[in-house]
């Protein structure tokens, strides 16, 4: 199914999520402004988000930020459109899919969190030095069609002279939540994994990371805080404060070690091995995954469009000016 097609199925999920998520509150009462954030998944990939809450950077701005994990780009966007959450943390491509459907109340990207793809190429039986040509005629366990991980992966493979639909056996019929389990059970010679799963598999001896799709696909607004245009118009002060709190966290993450970041965000990963969380953060910091400021620049946006066009998921060129608002990011940075 084309990426644009699954947005036509949003009506029922919107109604359902409106009911389910409306009951997800923490019962706190204060003078702070409540902001409900829906994240596409729980991941160390989003370390600045957790730092912003744990270090009190949102609280300093008078915001009571509640994080809900809405498990999947389609579900996260459905929750945002239904009004069950105020702000979504999800791939920027989701806002483009909504825009391409002619939304009367478009979703606006206003603060970037990650600026590279977050997946790594993991090989089951890597012998000797890795070369991208080794993927030819292999079985590759990929991600969902139309999602940023798969599109960035295809973009990177194309740059290495590999057509994922002709040169290898591409498996895309496994849900995101079950990809790691499928590989562990023997499916695929290679798999596209986020951290900390890649580090966990390395520790378990299931293979090793041989390349980074984030490095190969370049800078792009991979994960962004976004909200409906109507919410921005009605809550400009809140969006400004939210962006300022995020930027404080981005600066803190940039200036502190992986060990220090891991210590702060461990409450969000209570069942995880602290050493794995630390090594995962270090891998992301080393390749410049975490954005150091909330600005979504033109070059990054154009690279995103190129990635989507390569995957056949771009219905029309969508200029950044249509669904990107850097005013809040620029104001926050200029007022420091």
Description:
It is found in: Periplasm. Residues 1-23 form the signal peptide. The chain has 336 residues and is of the alpha/beta class. The chain folds into two domains: 5-116 and 220-334, 3-Layer(aba) Sandwich (D-Maltodextrin-Binding Protein, domain 2), CATH 3.40.190; 119-217, D-Maltodextrin-Binding Protein, domain 2, CATH 3.40.190.10. It contains 16 helices and ten strands. It has helices at residues 11-21, 47-54, 57-60, 73-82, 93-100, 148-159, 179-184, 197-203, 213-217, 229-234, 236-255, 258-265, 274-286, 298-310, 320-323, 327-334, and strands spanning 33-39, 63-69, 87-90, 107-114, 119-123, 139-141, 169-171, 190-194, 208-212, 223-228. The strands form two sheets. The chain has a five-stranded mixed β-sheet with strand order 2-1-3-10-4, sandwiched between helices. Helix 6 (148-159) links the parallel strand 6 and strand 7. Helix 1 crosses helix 4 (73-82), helix 2 packs across helix 11 and helix 11 packs across helix 16. The protein is globular, with a radius of gyration of 19 Å.
Features:
336 residues, 43% helix, 5-stranded mixed beta sheet, D-Maltodextrin-Binding Protein, domain 2, 2 domains, signal, ABC transporter substrate-binding protein, 10 strands, disordered N terminus, alpha/beta
Give the total of domains: 2
Major sheet strand order: 2-1-3-10-4
The average pLDDT score comes to: 90
Count of helical regions: 16
Approximate helicity band? 40-55%
Strand residue content: 15-25%
Shape: globular
The second-level CATH architecture of the largest domain is 3-Layer(aba) Sandwich
CATH superfamily of the largest domain: Periplasmic binding protein-like II
**Largest sheet report:** 5 strands, mixed
CATH fold-type name of the largest domain: D-Maltodextrin-Binding Protein, domain 2
The overall strand count is 10
Query: Uncertain regions: pLDDT < 50 for 5+ in a row?
Result: 1-29
Q: Compute the gyration radius: what is it? A: 19 Å
Q: Structural class of the secondary structure composition?
A: alpha/beta
Q: Order of helices and strands, N to C?
A: HEHHEHEHEEEHEHEHEHEHHHHHHH
First-last Cα distance: 46 Å
């Amino acid at each position: 199914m084309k990426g644009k097609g699954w947005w036509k199925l949003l009506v029922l999920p919107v109604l359902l999520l409106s009911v389910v998520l409306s009951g997800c509150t923490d019962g706190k009462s204060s003078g702070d402004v409540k902001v409900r954030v829906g994240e596409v998944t729980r991941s160390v990939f989003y370390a600045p988000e957790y730092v912003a809450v744990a270090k009190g950077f949102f609280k300093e701005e008078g915001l009571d930020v509640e994080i809900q994990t809405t498990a999947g780009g389609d579900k996260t966007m459905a929750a945002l459109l239904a009004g069950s959450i105020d702000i979504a943390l999800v791939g920027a491509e989701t806002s483009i899919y909504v825009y391409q459907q002619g939304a009367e109340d478009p979703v606006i990207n206003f603060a970037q969190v990650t600026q590279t793809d977050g997946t790594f190429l993991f090989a089951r039986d890597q012998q000797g030095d890795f070369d991208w040509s080794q993927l030819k005629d292999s079985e590759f366990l990929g991600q969902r069609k139309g999602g940023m991980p798969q599109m960035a992966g295809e973009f990177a493979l194309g740059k290495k002279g590999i057509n994922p639909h002709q040169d290898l056996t591409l498996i895309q019929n496994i849900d995101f939540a079950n990809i790691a389990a499928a590989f562990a059970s023997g499916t695929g010679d290679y798999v596209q994994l986020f951290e900390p799963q890649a580090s966990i598999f390395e520790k378990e001896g299931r293979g090793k990371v041989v390349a980074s799709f984030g490095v190969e696909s370049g800078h792009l607004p991979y994960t962004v805080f976004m909200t409906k245009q109507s919410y921005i118009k009605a809550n400009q002060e809140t969006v400004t404060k939210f962006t300022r709190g995020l930027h404080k966290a981005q600066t803190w993450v940039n200036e502190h070690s992986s060990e220090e970041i891991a210590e702060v965000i461990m409450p969000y990963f209570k069942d995880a091995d602290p050493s794995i969380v630390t090594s995962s953060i270090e891998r992301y910091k080393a390749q410049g995954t975490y954005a150091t400021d909330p600005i979504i620049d033109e070059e990054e946006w154009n690279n995103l469009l190129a990635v989507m066009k390569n995957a056949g998921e771009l219905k029309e060129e969508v200029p950044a000016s249509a669904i990107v608002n850097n005013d809040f990011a620029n104001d926050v940075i200029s007022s420091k």
